[in-house]
Amino acid sequence: MAATTDDSEIEQPAPGEVTIVAHDIGAVGGMERQLTELIVGLRALGQRVTVIARTCRLPAGTDVEFHRVRAPGRPFLLAYPWFMLTGSLAVRRWRRGLLQATGAIVLNRVDVLAVHYCHQVGPVNPSRATPLFRAQVAMAGVLKRLGERVCFHINRPRAIVCVSDGVAAEVREHFPTLADRLTTIHNGIDVHAFAPGLRVEDAEALRASLALPAGGLLLAFVGSEWGRKGLEPAIRALALSPEWTLLVAGAGERARFEDLAERLGVGQRVRWLGVTADVARVYELADAFVLPSSYETFSLVTFEAAASGLPVLATPVSGVRELIEDGRNGFLITREPELIAERLGRLAADPELRRRLGGAARESALAFSRERMAREHHELYARLAGLPAPAPIASS
């Protein structure tokens, strides 16, 4: 393990400077996208940002100082401890101002610990069913839990930022000595990019490219780890809902779920879109969104779908509980296909219900903008640096 510094060696925070250390930053992956939104938002507020990461793909013109950590991305059992060592050394060399670590990834003192996922609680869900892969995933889970306990102790964070109240409750339960440092700053979404309004000609062209039935209703499912996120109950509900075609965006064990769809007679009503960086188009094309997930920490895709004006059908997991009110801006569901199908039937039969729920979902999602997320981080950094709080700005 990399040597850690004592308190006398900790660099004093410089006004307006923050260093963010993470495995990866970019346009694909929930946490990676959130880091991108945070950094872009901080720069818009005038915050100077240094990034220490394995990969960093930011929009053109985003002015940050980036230092690459030379570490493999996989296999996890090698990549995780490798980054922990090399990333810790990189932090000692390159950190400027306040230091924010994205989870349990370095062995340095940190000012802010951003927790997107509490591994003491979060389930381990192999994306493939082979015994070897399952064994690797199980070992990775053990390593994550151990790494979390070691890093949280060594990091001695001054503040712990959780992405939802649900994650905060999990950290409070498993790390009670850190409870007084917890705060929730919800993830933020681009409410301008994720918004209703796909042009008719674009919608028609997209429908044609996917060979979608004319006039049929489209149900979006977005995410990977399909077992945990509930693709099977979604497909089973599809078999009971003849009005709908299912759009599946993300990566998973496709052959297994294709076989399930064929056995249920709905293979022709499922479109496999794969991983896409332009997921906003999927929401714009759809008439509703479904996510019968067994566990989430924030469920970014649910918030994006809501911002896009879609009626949301989702299980009441962390994040979703803080957004969806059953019957007002969506439906809280279980993983029972019959219940999901009943809700889909109501939506299919009542266009006004779809419009009302989608409009209310959009209105609720506006409170979770990326500008708000960046502003709350900016204010936290100012407090930790002993600076006056930034002047309030109008929310967008």
Q: How are the elements arranged and paired?
A:
Layout: E1 17-25, H1 30-44, E2 48-56, E3 65-68, H2 76-94, E4 98-102, E5 112-115, H3 131-155, E6 159-162, H4 165-174, E7 182-184, H5 200-209, E8 217-222, H6 226-229, H7 231-238, E9 244-249, H8 254-263, E10 270-274, H9 279-285, E11 288-291, H10 300-307, E12 312-314, E13 330-332, H11 337-349, H12 351-365, H13 370-384
Parallel strand pairs: 1-2, 1-4, 2-3, 4-5, 5-6, 6-7, 8-9, 8-11, 9-10, 11-12, 12-13
Helix pairs in contact: 1-13, 7-11, 10-12
Percentage beta strand: 15-25%
CATH superfamily of the largest domain: Glycogen Phosphorylase B
* Number of DSSP-assigned strands: 13
Q: What series of H and E elements makes up the topology? A: EHEEHEEHEHEHEHHEHEHEHEEHHH
| Oligomeric status | single chain
CA radius of gyration: 22 Å
How is the biggest beta sheet arranged? Answer: 7 strands, parallel
As a percent range, the share of helical residues equals: 40-55%
User: How many H/I helices?
Assistant: 13
Characterization of the model:
There is one protein chain. Residues 1-15 and 391-396 have low confidence and may be disordered. The strands form two sheets. This protein has a seven-stranded parallel beta sheet, with helices on both faces. Strands 10-9-8-11-12-13 form a six-stranded parallel beta sheet, sandwiched between helices. The chain folds into two domains: 7-188 and 370-384, Rossmann fold, CATH 3.40.50; 200-368, Glycogen Phosphorylase B (Rossmann fold), CATH 3.40.50. Helix 1 crosses helix 13 and helix 7 (231-238) crosses helix 11 (337-349). It has 396 residues and is of the alpha/beta class. It contains 13 helices and 13 strands. Helix content is 40%, strand content 16%. The longest helix has 25 residues, at 131-155. It has helices at 30-44, 76-94, 131-155, 165-174, 200-209, 226-229, 231-238, 254-263, 279-285, 300-307, 337-349, 351-365, 370-384, and strands at residues 17-25, 48-56, 65-68, 98-102, 112-115, 159-162, 182-184, 217-222, 244-249, 270-274, 288-291, 312-314, 330-332.
